C-alpha cells in the first residue's frame, strides 16, 4: 500500500522551486513542466484547459521577448496530503522587479502522482 511520505512533500516543494527558477530564467516551458497535460487553470472567465493555453496566457501577459517582465518568488507553501497519490498545495506568489508594480496573490494546486511523477492537475491562482 502506498502512503504519502516526507519524500513526496519534498518532491512537491522542489517542483515548485524549480518552476519558479525556470520562470526567472525565461524558460516558460520549464515553468509549466509541473502541469499534467489534463490541467485546468481557474480564471475570471472560468476554467482554462491545457498546458498550451497556460503558456500562451503567461507568455502574452508576463513575458517580453522570451524574458519575464518580473521575477517570481513563492512563499508560505503548505502541502496537505489528500491520499497516497494526491495532495493540495497552497501558497503565495510574488512577482517583483522590472518596470511593473509588485503583484502577489495566493494559489492552490492539486497534484496527483502519475507515471511521469507528481504533476499538478488543477491550479487556482488569485
Can you tell me about this structure?
It contains three helices and eight strands, in the order ααββαββββββ. It has one domain: Nuclear Transport Factor 2, Chain: A. It is an alpha+beta fold and 126 residues long.
Write the layout of secondary structure elements.
Layout: H1 6-24, H2 28-31, E1 35-43, E2 46-49, H3 51-62, E3 63-64, E4 67-68, E5 71-83, E6 86-96, E7 103-114, E8 117-125
Parallel strand pairs: 1-8
Antiparallel strand pairs: 1-2, 3-4, 5-6, 6-7, 7-8
Q: Characteristics of this structure?
A:
126 residues; alpha+beta; Nuclear Transport Factor 2, Chain: A; six-stranded mixed beta sheet; two-stranded antiparallel ribbon; globular
Number of domains: 1
CATH topology: Nuclear Transport Factor 2, Chain: A
| Order of strands across the main sheet | 2-1-8-7-6-5
Q: Which structural class is indicated by helix and strand composition?
A: alpha+beta
Assigned CATH architecture: Roll
Order of helices and strands: HHEEHEEEEEE
Radius of gyration: 14 Å
How would you sum up the global shape? globular
**Biggest sheet character:** 6 strands, mixed
- Helical content band: 25-40%
Enumerate how many helices there are, as a single number.
Answer: 3
Query: Which class in CATH terms?
Result: Alpha Beta
Structure summary, number of beta strands? 8
Q: Would you tell me the overall average pLDDT?
A: 96
Poorly predicted sequence stretches spanning 5 or more consecutive residues: none
Strand content: over 45%
Distance between the termini: 36 Å
Short summary of the structure?
Helices cover 28% and strands 49% of the residues. The strands form 2 sheets. A 6-stranded mixed β-sheet has the order 2-1-8-7-6-5, covered by helices on one side.
